[in-house]
Amino acid sequence: MAQVEERTEVRTIKNYVGGSWVDTEASDRIDVTNPATGGAMAQVPMSGAADVDRAVRAAREAFPAWRATPPLERARACFELKYQLEKRKDELAEIVSRDNGKAIKDAAGEVRRGIECVEVATGIPSLMQGANLEDVSRGIDSDLIRQPIGVFAAITPFNFPFMVPLWFLPFAIACGNSFILKPSEQDPLAMELVFELLDEIGLPPGVANLVNGGKDAVNALLEHPGLSGVSFVGSTPVAHYIYETAAKHGKRVQALGGAKNHVIVMPDAELEPAVDGVLSSAFHAAGQRCLANSVCVAVGDVYEPLRKRLVEKADAMVVGEGIDPETEVGPVISSAAQERIVGWIEKGVEAGGELLLDGRGKGSGDGAFVGPTIIETEPDAEIAREEIFGPVLTLLRARDLDHALEILNASTKGNAASIFTTSGGAMRKFRYKAEAGMLGVNIGVAAPMSFFPFTGWKESFFGDLHAHGRDAIDFYTEKKVVITRWPDA
């Protein structure tokens, strides 16, 4: 009976459609849990096609007037949103930490990077400008202008529940489009607060809409004829499905997939900064980020000292509830993720890998904890090739930089890669030959600022235009060329 009474206290979050918080027509609900404790914090509705259609209709109704709103006024809406987010940044970081599990320091960093995306979008009066040329022929001028297209949607992942939605939302609405967000059903609470703030700043009804749900909501968005384009971030198989399905239904698509990033440590590297960079990349956010370097390639004589320091320092990392300021590695997103990651560790050992540091059993209580784990293996081992998305680092040997690049470039994914070196020649060869879209030099996480695009390669990205930066302006607008000749006065 006590358990039933506890369940009645768990609220159900709502969708935000047409400027109002609305209940869904779908009746299915799932729990939103704190992964550090397993306790339910809310329930999220599993919206269906009817709920998606309601949001698309509201967005389409709002589009003509919003498109006609001067870019400067749209920029002011982004300025106001940035101001409100800054005021609530500590609260947002705490929500992310409790809802996602990540350490509060990581959550605060995520909130800061998300706000930066809104900040960049405030520059839309300049970013959206076109071009012109007089006298392209005698008495004829030509102008290129950019125009918003219609209704866009973003389907975003659990690992950055605040930041990733803001890779898309501010750019889409600043360009004059209306927008629908479908956040991860596993940790939707940060976006709930963001939409409360959007409501408070007086954004016109229907310009920004929030639809909670899972696969049914996703498919309804991909197939809806009223939607102009879709953005997605998630695993490679799902990204490929999103790209294929949305394109088949005539939509613009940018689908960011998974990763298996490599970090190369050269013999001339400064050892301690390299160790810190590798560990931060591999284990912060519990390894649940597409820029995590989950494969460390040690070149030549650096292998033994690097191996020793990685194990020593990783073993000392504090594993615990993310909201604790001392925590460095929080829980993974769910017990299902925990089981999957533990299964990968066992598979790696069974295949001949040497377990240098075992993170199984770290943490406490009912939380979904996996501590930092390091496995020494061969480049062709499955655990060194497939995305695990957890705090598991594979350690490989390479004879020289050419061998290390051969290992890196053999991956089917090409999201990011890093090198630690004091050699300009090694850096240049790495920059020239590494087959990945985002490269770090003496930096563990090669995360571009939001005024640059997020440039994954290979199976880490499906589409033509990447997230944020100038690519976002091209994605959310259509170019129009006007050729003009006037009769002489």
Gyration radius, rounded:
24 Å
Low-confidence stretches: 1-8
**What share of residues is helical?**
25-40%
Q: Which percent range describes the beta-strand content?
A: 15-25%
- Arithmetic mean of pLDDT: 96
Computed structural class = alpha/beta
Summarize the main sheet: 7 strands, mixed
> How many strand elements?
22
Oligomer: single chain
Ends apart, CA distance between termini = 88 Å
Shape: globular
| Strand line-up across the major sheet | 14-15-16-13-12-18-19
Short description:
This protein has helices at 2-8, 49-67, 71-87, 89-100, 104-121, 124-127, 169-174, 189-200, 215-223, 236-248, 271-283, 303-315, 335-350, 401-409, 424-433, 470-475, and strands spanning 15-17, 20-22, 29-33, 40-45, 131-137, 140-148, 151-155, 178-182, 208-210, 229-233, 252-256, 261-265, 293-299, 354-357, 373-376, 392-398, 413-414, 416-420, 438-441, 457-458, 461-463, 477-485.
Provide a descriptive summary of the structure in words.
This protein is of the alpha/beta class and 489 residues long. Helices cover 38% and strands 22% of the residues. Strands 14-15-16-13-12-18-19 form a 7-stranded mixed β-sheet, sandwiched between helices. A 6-stranded mixed β-sheet has the order 9-8-7-10-11-21, with helices on both faces. Helix 15 links the parallel strand 18 (416-420) and strand 19. It starts with a helix and ends with a strand. Helix 3 packs antiparallel against helix 5. The longest helix is centred in the first third of the chain and has 19 residues, at 49-67.
